[in-house]
Model the fold of this input.
Amino acid sequence: MLTMRPHLRAFIPAITARVAELGSAVIATHYVAPEELAVAGAIGQLRDSGAELVIVAGETSIMDRDDVTPQGIRMAGGRVEHYGAPVEPGNLLLLAYIGAGDARIPVLGAPGCVRSRDTNIVDLLLPRLLAGEYIARRDIVALGHGGLLG
Done:
């Protein structure tokens, strides 16, 4: 897990609980400044330490293609699969992948609603990603049919 700045610790308990409920574990948490190189470096460290999924939580706009998180993902050798999700809460989602084929690791740019334990987009995608499913742009777009999670 990667979060920008220590004051964003509120993300940690909710994400850790979600991951644990699905039978997985958070192997490391990195706190970095909201800078592209820092994000890229932390993603690389997590990948190299054996992470099978990276969750990025922060205060920057993951929906802006030129912002810190998407730029850091690209600098780490990744590509953004999709920006946004047609569900609420959680429309400010980013899904990317580092690597290719069997070595591909998903990078989930978590929206701010992930701090809450209320059901949100992360709850829809996390089980599938942890099971090793490749989620494409079309899969997220398809959530638009009945995507209100209230």
The chain has five helices and six strands. The longest strand covers residues 78-83. The CA atoms of residues 77 and 98 lie 6 Å apart. The radius of gyration is 14 Å.
